[in-house]
Design the sequence.
């Protein structure tokens, strides 16, 4: 471990960042300029129409913060240029696809199921278990990164799509650069993916603060209208659904939806919501470790205390609003599960969630879930070590901020 508590990077990454190896990549030193990036995306696709221009304001804020505050390494700048250009190319391709096939707008996204809850509360394992149900459609990493053209409904053609390798190279680079991300969260093209990646095309997404220290963009994001992000999210699902038989329910997941439940329900008024719960004191240590590692992929300047404080404030507000939302009775299609119950009896917990949402867990789906759990040994990719005490926060103050949430949802208090 380094002095900061983060793992040492692989030798090849240090060699590039130190200037000992010249990767001959102009993007490693090129400035982030909006017009240059837009022109590059146009040239690479041969297209010109990005659709609505409501993405330009957040893009400008993001680019300014990347230059002024993110303190990117050479590898980090190179990765970020590639990331931004992928988002812009896909905007062009989406706009072109909708023009050529306007009927895609008539695709109905019926009663989607959203898994929400603070990070590190069991959302990923619940999402993965729900993906085992043949009645569900869970977007894979490559679909959310590269949705155009729609994937083939033929399983063999779907599995052989050349975009899988392209997306996998982008997603696997996080562990390659950090040397330790897999022990916290595994990313891959054929794995279920958080659907906030679909909102990133609108440049209104928590994906950016997760990767970079971008304070002005983040402040804007937390107060902006998320309607355009959810509309883009819906467009991506409509494209991915095009040509597939009807009847399968979309199952989506992201802790970021906690902050924007009203926006989500305006776009998907018939949505069903499954919320996972865990003591926020434990969550803060775990999620801050994850975010620090993601930022370590891009920057040498990673501040645990600032990351921890940001998430304490974010989730104190989000979880209070969740209490208000639940107490108001605004949504009857919402169920809750405790992280401790997932550890003790995962299938019983999932079964109870199905029943609470008026859904049927078929025996074949339950058996597939059982098989998935049996093939997923704990700590397969290493041990994730984290502690609230790493954050330099006042434990008593932070603990008190979550008392109302713990009481309302009967969340067990962390033992340490």
Sequence:
């Amino acid at each position: 471990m380094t002095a900061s508590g983060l793992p040492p990077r692989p030798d090849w990454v240090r060699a590039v960042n130190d200037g000992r190896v010249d990767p001959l990549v102009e993007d490693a030193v090129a400035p982030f300029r909006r017009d240059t990036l837009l022109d590059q995306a146009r040239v690479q696709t041969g297209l010109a129409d990005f659709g609505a221009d409501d993405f330009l304001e957040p893009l400008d804020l993001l680019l300014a913060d990347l230059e002024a505050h993110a303190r990117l390494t050479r590898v980090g700048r190179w990765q970020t240029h590639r990331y931004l250009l992928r988002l812009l190319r896909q905007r062009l391709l989406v706009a072109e696809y909708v023009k050529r096939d306007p009927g895609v707008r008539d695709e109905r996204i019926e009663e989607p199921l959203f898994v929400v809850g603070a990070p590190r509360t069991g959302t990923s394992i619940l999402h993965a278990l729900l993906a085992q149900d043949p009645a569900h459609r869970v977007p894979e990493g490559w679909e959310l990164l590269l949705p155009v053209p729609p994937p083939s409904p033929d399983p063999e053609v779907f599995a052989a799509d050349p975009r899988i390798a392209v997306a996998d190279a982008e997603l696997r680079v996080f562990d390659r650069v950090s040397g330790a991300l897999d022990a916290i969260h595994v990313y891959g093209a054929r794995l279920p993916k958080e659907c906030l990646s679909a909102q990133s095309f609108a440049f209104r997404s928590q994906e950016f603060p997760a990767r970079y220290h971008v304070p002005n963009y983040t402040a804007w994001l937390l107060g902006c209208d998320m309607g355009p992000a959810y509309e883009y999210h819906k467009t991506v699902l409509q494209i991915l659904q095009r040509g597939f038989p009807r009847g399968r329910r979309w199952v989506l997941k992201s802790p970021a939806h906690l902050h924007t439940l009203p926006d989500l329900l305006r776009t998907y008024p018939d949505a069903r919501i499954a919320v996972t719960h865990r003591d926020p004191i434990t969550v803060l240590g775990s999620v801050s470790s994850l975010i620090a590692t993601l930022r370590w992929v891009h920057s040498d300047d990673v501040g645990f205390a600032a990351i921890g404080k940001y998430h304490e404030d974010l989730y104190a507000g989000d979880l209070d609003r969740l209490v208000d939302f639940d107490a108001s009775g605004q949504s009857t299609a919402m169920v809750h599960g405790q992280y401790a119950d997932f550890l003790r009896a995962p299938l019983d917990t999932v079964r109870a969630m199905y029943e609470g949402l008026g859904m049927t867990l078929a025996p074949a789906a339950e058996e597939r879930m059982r098989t998935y759990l049996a093939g997923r040994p704990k700590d397969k990719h290493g041990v994730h070590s984290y502690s609230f005490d790493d954050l330099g926060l006042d434990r008593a103050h932070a603990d008190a901020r979550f008392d109302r949430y713990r009481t309302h949802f009967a969340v067990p208090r962390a033992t340490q």
